[in-house]
Amino acid sequence: MRRNTFWLITALFVMVFSSQAMAGPALSVLGQDYTFPNKIEGTPDKLSDFKGLEINSFKTSDGAKLTYWEAGSGKPLIFIPGWSANGAEYINVMYLLREHYHVYVLDPRNQGLSENVDYGMRISRYAKDVKELADHLGIKSANYCGWSMGASVMWSYIDLFGTQGIQKVVFIDEPPSILTRPGWTDQERLNAGAMVDTPEQLMRAFTSGEPNPVLERFMAMDSPYFENSESFARFFIKSDMKYMSLIMFDHASNDWRDVIGKKVNVPTAIFTGEYSPNLPSQLWMKSAISNSTLYVYSKQEQGDHFLAFKNPVKFTKDLQEFLER
């Protein structure tokens, strides 16, 4: 009986400890400090320099445990990363914004520190995850920023839930439709940003290592800010391509032009750059959303798909200017 009691207490201790391990100061959750490869004025030299950075989690209505990163105080600002991305990559963005906003970055299911699951592999479920994050936090209204696939998640969010809880919304360099539809003219394809004829082509492009413009800009590693955030993410995040790739088919199959043209009715910022193959579609989005501002970063300003991480000082300055306008 005593042995059973001992094991019961031990099991309860492990359960409590495990539940706490993914909630609290980032340094405690990650288990060790980290020194960034480049010392850059205005950004932390070590993880421990980022006071107030926390990593917490919640459970969705369908049972997936999702992690979110948070820092700062003030109005809530929620970031939705792109495919395969995570909160660790936002380390500089969060640090630069922490004095002005209460910043949150969600690790989508199967990404970052969130749980790997084989269900809910639909952009609509990812959108509900965002809604449930806001509900979990008790946030009734916030600014939202979706990058890459994260922008698609926000288009689905607006399609499902409207814009009542959105003050302003930001989209970073995501085409309205990745997949070319039969019968499209060349202009329709440019407006949509379509880049492949089948979802399988997109999956091969991002999982087989074949050259493509987005991966080429990623591999360039031509920014010390980007090198810092990527090295930090690689050190702590162990991604499983088997799980991450499950969402790609649904992601590639959506056409969001009707949502963009008819349902985005709050002040909107669109970020893209001269290096990005998505530039034509971002110009179309600017014309389709009446109350929108377009930011086109030059090549000298690191204007590619990763502009927010390669040039976080300019990005956060432009973002804050837009949000406070």
Question: What this model shows, in words?
Answer:
With 325 residues, this protein is α/β, with parallel strands linked by helices. The chain has one domain: Alpha/Beta hydrolase fold, catalytic domain (Rossmann fold, 3-Layer(aba) Sandwich), CATH 3.40.50. It is built from 15 helices and 9 strands. The protein has helices at 2-21, 26-30, 91-97, 123-137, 149-161, 186-192, 199-207, 213-220, 224-236, 241-244, 248-253, 257-262, 279-288, 307-310, 312-324, and strands spanning 24-25, 54-59, 65-71, 75-80, 101-106, 142-147, 166-172, 268-273, 292-297. A 9-stranded mixed sheet has the order 1-2-3-5-4-6-7-8-9, with helices on both faces. Strand 6 (142-147), helix 5 (149-161) and strand 7 (166-172) form a beta-alpha-beta unit. It is globular and about 55 Å long. The model is unreliable at 1-21 (pLDDT under 50).
In a few lines, what is going on in this structure?
With 325 residues, this protein is of the alpha/beta class. Helices cover 43% and strands 16% of the residues. Residues 1-23 form the signal peptide.
Give the SSE layout:
Elements: H1 2-21, E1 24-25, H2 26-30, E2 54-59, E3 65-71, E4 75-80, H3 91-97, E5 101-106, H4 123-137, E6 142-147, H5 149-161, E7 166-172, H6 186-192, H7 199-207, H8 213-220, H9 224-236, H10 241-244, H11 248-253, H12 257-262, E8 268-273, H13 279-288, E9 292-297, H14 307-310, H15 312-324
Parallel strand pairs: 4-5, 4-6, 6-7, 7-8, 8-9
Antiparallel strand pairs: 1-2, 2-3, 3-5
Helix pairs in contact: 3-15, 4-5
